[in-house]
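testing teh design pipeline on a random one, pls ignore if ur not involved
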């Protein structure tokens, strides 16, 4: 995995880039089939990106080195617990559960080509 700099409560606790993110693995697939119809040719193609729909982490929390969880709730708390009438303030859980922390999920693309 790629390097990151571990921190605890916003303070570095080791050397720069001394932590490692989890391994990034992606499998893609491309399949095509050509059909002859008289003098014409029809080509059908399917492309599948991230074939096994693996949850690859792009960004990690510096306190845990993972995108799935953080230790921040243990020391930061949640402002909504103390001030339930706050408007425009989202719970900490929404901030921690960020879909941008992960690479793209499985994508399937189909195409047809017709040549004369």
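output:
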């Amino acid at each position: 995995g790629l390097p990151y700099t571990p921190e605890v409560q916003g303070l570095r606790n080791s050397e720069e880039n001394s932590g490692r993110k989890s391994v990034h693995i992606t499998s893609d697939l491309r399949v095509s089939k050509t059909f002859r119809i008289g003098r014409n040719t029809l080509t059908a193609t399917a492309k599948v990106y991230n074939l096994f729909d693996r949850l690859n982490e792009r960004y990690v929390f510096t306190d845990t080195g993972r995108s799935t969880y953080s230790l921040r709730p243990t020391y930061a708390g949640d402002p909504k617990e103390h001030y339930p009438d706050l408007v425009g303030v989202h719970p900490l859980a929404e901030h921690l559960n960020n879909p941008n922390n992960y690479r793209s999920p499985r994508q399937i693309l189909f195409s047809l080509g017709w040549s004369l």
